[in-house]
Amino acid sequence: MFPVLPKDCQIVWVTTRGASFWAVNYKITVQSLGEETEQSYFMKVFLHNRGREMAEAEYESTKAWYNVVPDNVANPIGWGELASKPGRWFLLLEFRDMTDRMPLVSDFVTVVAAGHQAPVSPTGKFGFHLTTFAGDQANDNRWCDTWEEWFTRAMRNTMEAELRVHGPHPELQALSEKILTRVIPRLLRPMETHGRTIRPSLLHGDLWHGNVGVEHGTGAPIIYDCGSFFGHNEFDFSCWRAARYQTNRTHVEAYFRIADKTEPVEDFDDRNALYAA
């Protein structure tokens, strides 16, 4: 946790900037005493019962991306507990004024590729140093030696969560077992055997169009709501497959004009379908 707002400042204006099922967003404008210049911040207040974890996770995820592409990610200022509402947690970022439209395809994939290619996993493994979230769904980020291990665990957790919510379902359970024991090894293991390796890439973790915008004035792509971990770079395309999203095959093809597909390349579309499941 951090001291966040500048000392000796007064709040000039607070306005809401949208909400989700688990958080409310605000724009806070402050002015330092004795000065005319104002400074604005973006604050997310988490309503979820895991708000403390979510605030810290998004701070650390955003910081990881800001360190790589600072022009395209809001600077994370800090996170902590609201003094006026103990038990309620917040994240504070610099305010980046933006629209919710998608950036140009080439601009967007250039930012994504830069994030994937630049940082190195501190352990050389797959995972992250704390639990992160895609929306309100937690990523079990304990370090794994192989991508197959990390993804199998994540898929199993998703399947178990589905059964907890909806109850036993024999057909789904049988299908889930086949995916875990047959499909995942078939599609992911070849990338890490026969002399092949995967470089753990810094992933956004929830890269759908609702977490992307365009900055007013500069036109720069801005990405936010990061739920990061080190994984297979193609995993970030999982949201680009479904027709309901504003990303599609055009974005994938543009990305691969910058970066190479993972071998075996003939499995790419099947891997993409698995990640999008």
TrEMBL record:
Alphabetical keyword list: Kinase, Transferase
Gene3D superfamilies associated with the record: 3.90.1200.10
Any Pfam family the entry gives: Fructosamin_kin
EC assignment: 2.7.1.172
InterPro entries linked to this entry: Fructo-/Ketosamine-3-kinase, Kinase-like_dom_sf
Catalytic reactions of this protein: N(6)-D-ribulosyl-L-lysyl-[protein] + ATP = N(6)-(3-O-phospho-D-ribulosyl)-L-lysyl-[protein] + ADP + H(+)
Family note: Belongs to the fructosamine kinase family.
Protein name, as recorded: protein-ribulosamine 3-kinase
